[in-house]
């Protein structure tokens, strides 16, 4: 099968099947071989690897993955793409296409079936409308994985890497950095896709930590505290947390915890590092 990273080949297959792009599925297919190569290099794929690809589209990246990995399983929601994938991936016997919604499929069960429960790598040009739920779902569900190498909206890639003090720093930065080391691998302009997206894109690699970089007694509570702090960015941390339904403690205890941390009562959540959110959570759990 011809390399679909070359735009003429993508156009030919789309015309053959009279494929109509569905905006609601975030369909922007890659048509740039050098970007595809860079994604493969960043993901460090070897013949030992089992790969989950989210949204294979017409199979462009799937071809690259199938050439390099032991096994690829690709989850695609659009049933109109399934016959096309049948043709574009026909020569590979190490690819399984699953016609499902990635947000509904039981990924842990899939990893069990496809790789005997051993860690996989996730590689994808993601549908941008569901980037955050996909990433958080993968991390929170404890699917065994080494790394996630993905194309996302440029702005979202930046947010995942941000540190306190930046305007873009927020709940997503903290969640990603709790589970993984983020590293932007490439910036990708709209002309590398068909059709062209209206936003810039970037490839980011998230390498999962074996142990999170901070010790927290109650992970769920820490993320509730983080979300509450950033939901009301302009409020002080104390005001954001007072009366929060998930906290069993009142204002006095929160002030006491901040005091123990050497923080003033007027501190804002957006200045807190991951370590500080963990410390605050541990102090509030203890109460
Ligand atoms: N991997 C292809 C490429 O790079 O050319 C296509 C990438 S395109 C940005 C995103 C793909 O994800 C589309 O094929 C789309 O149909 C699929 N998709 C969208 N929502 C999905 C979902 N909930 N579950 C699985 N696939 C989805």
Structure description:
The chain has 287 residues and is of the alpha/beta class. The protein folds into two domains: 202 residues, Rossmann fold; 68 residues, Helicase, Ruva Protein, domain 3, CATH 1.10.8. Helices cover 40% and strands 17% of the residues. The chain contains twelve helices and nine strands. Helix 6 runs parallel beside helix 8. The longest helix is centred in the C-terminal third of the chain and has 13 residues. The model has no long low-confidence stretch (mean pLDDT 95). The chain binds S-adenosylmethionine. S-adenosylmethionine binds next to strand 1 and helix 3.
Short characterization:
With 287 residues, the chain is an alpha/beta fold. The chain has helices at residues 7-16, 33-43, 60-68, 82-88, 107-115, 131-140, 154-161, 171-179, 219-231, 237-241, 251-260, 274-286; strands spanning 29-30, 50-54, 71-75, 95-98, 120-125, 145-153, 180-188, 193-194, 201-208.
């Amino acid at each position: 099968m011809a390399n679909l990273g070359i735009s003429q080949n993508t156009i030919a297959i789309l015309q053959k099947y009279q494929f109509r792009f569905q905006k609601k599925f975030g369909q922007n297919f890659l048509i740039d071989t050098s970007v595809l190569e860079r994604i493969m290099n960043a993901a460090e794929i070897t013949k030992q690897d089992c790969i989950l690809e989210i949204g294979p589209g017409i199979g462009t990246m799937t071809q690259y993955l199938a050439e390099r990995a032991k096994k690829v399983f690709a989850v695609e929601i659009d049933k109109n793409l399934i016959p096309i994938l049948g043709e574009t991936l026909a020569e590979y016997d190490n690819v399984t296409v699953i016609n499902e919604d990635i947000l509904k499929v039981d990924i842990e069960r899939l990893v069990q079936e496809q790789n005997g429960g051993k860690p996989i790598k996730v590689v994808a040009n993601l549908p941008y409308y569901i980037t955050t739920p996909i990433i958080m779902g993968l991390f929170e569900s404890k699917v065994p994985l080494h790394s996630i190498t993905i194309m996302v909206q440029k702005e979202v890639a930046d947010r995942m890497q941000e540190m306190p003090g930046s305007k873009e720093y927020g709940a997503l930065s903290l969640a990603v950095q709790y589970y993984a080391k983020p590293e932007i691998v490439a910036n990708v302009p709209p002309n590398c896709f068909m059709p062209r997206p209206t936003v810039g894109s970037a490839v980011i690699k998230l390498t999962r930590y074996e142990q999170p970089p901070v010790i927290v007694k109650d992970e769920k509570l820490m993320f509730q505290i983080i979300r509450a702090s950033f939901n009301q960015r302009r409020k002080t941390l104390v005001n954001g947390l007072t009366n929060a339904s998930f906290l069993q403690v009142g204002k006095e205890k929160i002030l006491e915890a901040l005091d123990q941390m050497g923080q003033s009562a007027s501190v804002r959540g957006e200045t807190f590092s991951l370590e500080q959110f963990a410390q605050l959570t541990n102090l509030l759990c203890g109460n």
